[in-house]
Amino acid sequence: MNNIELNRFWEKVKEELIGNLPESVHPWVYSLEVSGYDKGVLTVVTGQTMAKEWLRKNHGEQMNNILQTISKNKDARIHIIYDENAAIKIKKEVAKIHKKEAEAQLKEQAMENLSCMQSSANLNLKYKFENFVIGENNKFAHDAALAVAKQPATKFNPLFIYGNSGLGKTHLMQAIGHYTLFNNSKLKVKYTKTDDYISDFISNSRKTNDSIENMSKFNKKYTNIDIILIDDIQLIESKEKTMKRMQQTFDTLYEKGKQIVITSDRLPEEIPKITDALASRFKRGLMVEITPPDFKTRLEIIKKLAGNNDIKAEIEALEYIAKHFTNNVRELEGAFTKVCAYAEFNNKPITLELAKYILKCDENEKQITFENITDVTSKYYDVDIKDILGTARSQKIALARQISIYICRELTNQSFEAIGEYFNRKHTTTMYAYEQTKNKIDIKKDIASAVREIKQALKVL
Ligand code: ADP
Ligand code: MG
Fold this sequence. Notes:
alpha/beta; five-stranded parallel beta sheet; three-stranded mixed beta sheet; 62% helix; elongated; binds adenosine-5'-diphosphate; binds magnesium ion
């Protein structure tokens, strides 16, 4: 019998032993190792003296019977010997198992702590760096966020991430939080939406009549941390008292060498009625913009989404979705989810046909250009395009210019810099024009209807 045959034979015998002997002795049986089989004598080794004695005395005969049946040799018998080396080996194995168990327990504990920290920090589990697709549109912002996560409060403080809605600001900001909690669990992270901060501040002021003691409790809540993530800061506009309080929160954190990360859907100077003091604090560190993703990045994002959720889909279907949802990743994800849901409810594969059927995107939709916009606006106001792009200051031309700029920003996904270049103006001027028009739409009916009609005309071009 060679070694392989011997081991196989022993496995068979062992199986029968386990099947027939009482459970109390199973650990001893498992600890036996085969050493040889010669002239009907099967020699097995144990590292436990107790096992040898007990098995031999109490189960020796039964064990021999089992071996005799299997080997078809009525004289066969099992010979158990004690070996110190085997004892050492067993000890080592037991220690290894204990170590593994202890490690697993520690890991479990750490994961539990982590998930506890994540929820107390208010973080969404999906918003991690590994789920964030990097493209031309967000690379700078991503790299800055990662640098901040790796070395908080050293270089870019505060980090100010801005860009339109649905482009990944919250995701990136929370990724910093996850990274920190995972890699440096000693640091305290707090994610807070600006509207929550505002209502917290207001309710606190009401309850406490601004008493120093209670206000200091509020302060502690927002300053007794290492990294604060404040989302959608533009919502603070016009809230004078809250702004003052936030200014103090910032100063305290900054002086204590803590990291501040802020997101906003626009630049600080574009936030109406924000105090200069607060805006200048936002600008003290690094400001990075996220713009809409290009086709390649959009496709990567839905591929990743499909992959993460184990969803199989025809690539043409994904391309179709990526092609038609250009401005907003949230909407891109929404379109994909809608197609998946329909496919699942109707038990159908995700194909191009299905995506077309569900989303009904207009295949012939044309990209609207700056030229189209100025052209239609100039006709609407009966002014020359070259005046809109030039320096003329008459009221009518200035209005046509502002409205063109506003619609360019709304309909083309282009940055204020690009718009400024086309209109021969600084990007801050285009931002101002955009903001002015946006405000006027809310209060002036004629402006609102001009914008609506121009947009309508552009759609049927
Ligand atoms: P914002 O805060 O800018 O409005 P979010 O961070 O809420 O946008 O992003 C909207 C959705 O799009 C989220 O589900 C987010 O995970 C997803 N998303 C945005 N950008 C990316 C990206 N680059 N990679 C993966 N998912 C993204
Ligand atoms: Mg957000």
